[in-house]
Write a structure and sequence with these properties.
This protein is of the alpha/beta class and 397 residues long. The chain has 4 domains: 1-95, no CATH class; 96-138; 147-227 and 359-392, Ribonuclease H-like superfamily/Ribonuclease H (Nucleotidyltransferase, domain 5, 2-Layer Sandwich), CATH 3.30.420.10; 229-354. It has 15 helices and 10 strands. The strands form 2 sheets. Strands 1, 2, 3, 4 and 5 form a 5-stranded mixed beta sheet that branches. Helix 3 crosses helix 15 (382-392) and helix 9 packs across helix 10. The relative contact order is 0.09. Bound molecules: zinc ion. Zinc ion is lined by residues 38, 40-41, 43, 77, 79-80, 83.
């Protein structure tokens, strides 16, 4: 019988009764050597009701995965009745020691769950639940009184048709709220939470074709809806540039070489011009010179973008009118269709002159959420996934 040796220092109130090594596992048997105190009220000196054995994981010792087999007592507390005793290094019902829990939390800050799970040999849901507990503790509640401008966006939750909506402070980039769904009623809880501070909201950036604008107008009487450049340009890429490029490639059926250049030009056309290297820029120029409709829709993309950055609403409106006139004269069908669909939203485009919300916020958020989703693939725990997102966007002071 071993008691009070060096090892006992690690488990307050317990002594090591026995330990043995079984291949890569170290098992340590612990027995309590102090009077039990009630786990609820802390009262000492109660009689023992019963004793059961619990198997618990601790941090690994050297190269061994370490398991503790401990005797857990239940006491007849005079105040609370039958209660499990208080163990300072083990949370109630927990299968891992506080020490291992802290270490797991630290790893989860930098690694995906699956890596932490492999590294520690803990079950994946155990790791997830530990990380979730940390996030519930750490993710800070926003200060609604300071918020003036919002950005809203939707993203796909899983493959299939389930969506979620994310709402952030446009200035600090703190994610304020996330909820499942993308209908008006799904985002209502956010505005109810915002309460009286809805009055302070002066601008909200969002994608077109959502039902968000109606809900915003209902709750925030002073808010101007601003349509986000990033989404409009992405749509332009899909509905105009891609369409014209495919049509052009079909026209060039006989000329294999020219056809190939057009077919492969997608990336060059959709990319920001400032992000192209020298040789890519030359390729782009050749592509545009040989294909007039492509050159037109490419230039019209830039002209459309410029509307967002006009210093005044008046100038933006003039630019818009000129753009629209050019579209009609172009004779390019996909471009005309796009412009016609865009027209009802023009107010929200011109509003960007008054409220130049940084659209890269939404683009950046969109990309980061995709990364978190990849790390979170298969969690099927939306609460956890949403906490992960809020944790990744704590906001700049
Ligand atoms: Zn008690």
């Amino acid at each position: 019988m071993l008691t009070d040796n060096f090892l006992s220092n690690f488990w307050q109130g317990f002594a090591v009764e026995d330990f043995y090594i079984d291949r890569d596992k170290l098992r340590i048997k612990l027995i309590p050597h102090k009077t039990a105190c009630c786990g609820r009220c802390g009262l000492m000196g109660n009689s023992i009701h019963d004793i059961s054995e619990r198997k618990v994981r601790d941090l690994s010792c050297f190269e061994y995965k370490t398991y503790l087999i401990i005797q857990v007592r239940r006491v007849n507390c005079l105040v609370c009745g039958v209660r499990t005793e208080h163990i300072p290094w083990l949370a109630p019902y927990s299968r891992v020691t506080k020490r291992l829990k802290n270490y797991t939390e630290a790893l989860c800050r930098i690694l995906p769950i699956s890596h932490v799970s492999n590294l520690l040999g803990l079950h994946w849901t155990t790791v997830k639940d530990i990380d979730k507990g940390r996030l519930i503790r750490e993710v800070t509640e926003p200060d609604y009184s300071r918020i003036k401008q919002l950005v809203m966006d939707e993203f796909a939750l899983h493959k299939g048709h389930r969506y979620a909506t994310v709402i952030a402070d446009a200035n600090t980039q703190q994610v304020l709220w996330i909820g499942e769904g993308r209908a008006r009623k799904n985002i209502r809880p956010f505005f109810e939470e915002l309460g009286e501070y809805c009055q302070n909201i002066e601008a909200v950036a969002m994608d077109m074709n959502t039902s968000f604008d109606l809900e915003v107008k209902e709750h925030c009487p002073h808010a101007e809806v601003v349509y986000d450049l990033f989404h409009v340009i992405a749509k332009y890429g899909r509905e105009v540039i891609d369409r014209v490029r495919v049509d052009r490639a079909n026209e060039l059926k006989e000329d294999k070489k020219a056809r190939k250049v057009v077919k492969q030009g997608r990336w060059l056309l959709l990319k920001n011009k400032s992000n192209l290297r020298g040789s890519q820029e030359i390729k782009l120029q050749e592509l545009l010179q040989a294909n007039k409709p492509l050159a037109v829709v490419y230039m019209m993309k830039q002209a459309l973008k410029d509307i967002w950055f006009c210093p005044t609403v008046k100038e933006a409106f003039n630019n818009w009118r000129y753009w629209f006139k050019q579209v009609k004269e172009s004779g390019i069908k996909p471009l005309e269709n796009f412009a016609r669909k865009l027209r009802p939203y023009v107010r929200g485009i011109l509003a960007s002159s008054k409220f130049p919300l940084n659209t890269s916020v939404l683009e950046g958020m969109n990309n980061k959420i995709k990364v978190i989703k990849r790390m979170a693939y298969g969690y099927r725990d939306s609460t956890y996934f949403f906490l992960k997102i809020r944790d990744a966007f704590p906001g700049k002071p």
